[in-house]
Amino acid sequence: MAGIMALFTAASAHAESAHAIAMYGDPALPPDFVSLPYANPDAPKGGRITFGATGGFDTLNPFARKGSTPWHYRYWATESLMGRSLDEPFTLYGLLAESIEVPEDRSWVEFTLNPAAKFSDGSPVTVEDVIWSYETLGTEGHARYRGFWQQVSKIETTGPGKVRLSFASDNRELALIAGLRPILKKSQWDGKDFANSGLSEAPISSSAYVLSEYEPNRFFTMKRNPDYWGRDLPFRNGTQNADELRVELFGDGTVMFEAFKAGELSTYREYNANLWENAYDFPRVQNGDVEKSEISHQKPTGITGLALNTRNAPLADWRVREALMLAFNFEYINETITGGQQQRIASYFSGSSLGLIPGAATGKTEALLAPYSRELITGTLKGYQPPTSDGSLRNRKNLRKAVKMLQEAGCVVTDGALHCNSDQPVTLRVLIRQADQQTKSIIDIYGQALERLGISLAVDVVDNAQFVERETAYDFDVIPIRRALSLSPGNEQYLYWGSAGVDQPGTRNLPGIDSPAVDAMIDTMLSARSSEDFQAAARALDRLLTAGRYVIPIWQYDSAYIAHVKELKYPDYIPIYGDKETYFLPDVWWVEAE
């Protein structure tokens, strides 16, 4: 008996129940924390915040594969077992789960549900709901959920209010990812088609906001549930302050800005530094009804630019992609569109400790890349940076280099048209949303340069539904891309760059990256036991992506530019993630009555 008890005690010491979990080290907040450090626990409740968005929607189920919804809806309409702190690289605190338990090797994770957790209809959140949500999202849900489910070897209940997930791979982040899956109500979908629900039904969730009214492609409104179960949780203290969140939909960004100027919207995000400086002198700014706020962050730059679909010839050849990089006259485009006020992105994780160090790879990073040296694209080990021009419209020097790269790739110009090992002239299909005026302007300038190389652009400007359909099927050569990367990159990197996304529709691997080295670096990041090993793998991944010439990078966003009505307020303390679009606004903002 003593031996059995000793074994039980030893096992328990390696898997103790806790209020939070961190990727590395310990959570910053103790079990008795009062509120998140960037939330104002004294913030008043009430009021409405009206947002604007371009595009439309054709489904009320943002978790299914088919259809599209405004990005806001997915984050406002659901809750998960744990919630993320924006002031720590990757730490989760209890939400639907009151505690979490993992062994030292993180081969499994166990959650204990908060007995107070309820769906918006008043029914309790049960272990059965949790298990059904994981299984359904993993098999019938959007591609963003399926990769995680494939790494779960078992899901089971281990006691009252307890659910355990066991993992099939050595991936230390899975325990945290498990805590962020949306939890939906199982009985709502009995006898119904979850995958094709469209506009017929909105998922019931436990979140503070409930869909109250909508009109497809025009607006939707969510109201705070007065009986929301989690309003007294420390994690929720000072958050979700507005009584009503409304999103007005527009077909054009210019029209949306005019609506904000006229007072129809509460807030507007600006992404052009030149416009931020020069276009905000309208009357409502001058009389103080509208204020301008700049909110900085400590995140990596991420990648913003034009993705080149390597599934298609001739873009599969890195030398052709390098020629396209050389022809992209960033300095001239930046001056024309932003007044030269925004710096260019140097690499995917630049601006952080995870970014590549310029020059040749050294130390652990070099050692990680060494086994793949024969297949690495030129510049990966020795160092690569996007080309720069002299800022003139002609960009002669870089265009001459581009011609040389194309010739090395076997491309020749015949009768003014470029041919790359084919009788057909090179025509690149560019896919753009109707509302994306900025990308249209960029492509207009870029197309003139490509004409000098004998390359034609076929620009398809389509509505939101067509864009999503073609993006899902990878039906394009060039497409705008934005991937906001965090200080704790993990499993989402498979979705962004993993080789499984080459053939699988609906992933976010728009460039079609198919690289064993990239897959290996993501694997290494997820199995790393120390922050030093994790950092080395992230830097190696950054080198592979940057030197791969998969995306033509444009400008970075060091700060969020947010114009808003004077009644909208936010705390003085800014978290390290700054204004994370999906959480900070509206989560910790409030409406201050006059």
Task: Note the main sheet.
Answer: 4 strands, mixed
Q: Figure out the total of helices.
A: 18
Mean pLDDT: 93
Low-confidence residue ranges: 1-13
How does this structure look, described?
The protein is α+β, with helices and mostly antiparallel strands. 28% of the residues lie in helices and 20% in strands. The chain is built from 18 helices and 23 strands. Strands 2-11-10-9 form a 4-stranded mixed sheet. The chain has a 4-stranded antiparallel sheet with strand order 5-6-8-7. It has a 3-stranded antiparallel sheet with strand order 1-4-3, with no helix packed on it. The chain is globular. The model is unreliable at 1-13 (pLDDT under 50).
Label this structure with key terms.
594 residues; alpha+beta; four-stranded mixed beta sheet; four-stranded antiparallel beta sheet; 18 helices; 23 strands; 28% helix; disordered N terminus
Short characterization:
The protein has 594 residues and is of the alpha+beta class. It contains 18 helices and 23 strands.
Give the topology.
Elements: H1 2-13, E1 20-22, E2 48-54, H2 71-76, E3 82-84, E4 91-94, E5 97-101, E6 108-113, H3 127-140, H4 143-149, E7 152-159, E8 162-167, H5 174-178, E9 209-215, E10 219-224, E11 244-250, H6 253-261, E12 267-270, H7 273-278, H8 283-286, E13 290-296, E14 303-308, H9 318-327, H10 330-338, H11 363-369, H12 396-408, E15 411-414, E16 417-420, E17 427-433, H13 437-451, E18 456-462, H14 464-472, E19 478-483, H15 492-497, H16 516-527, H17 531-547, E20 551-553, E21 559-565, E22 568-569, H18 584-587, E23 590-591
Helix pairs in contact: 3-4, 9-12, 11-17, 16-17
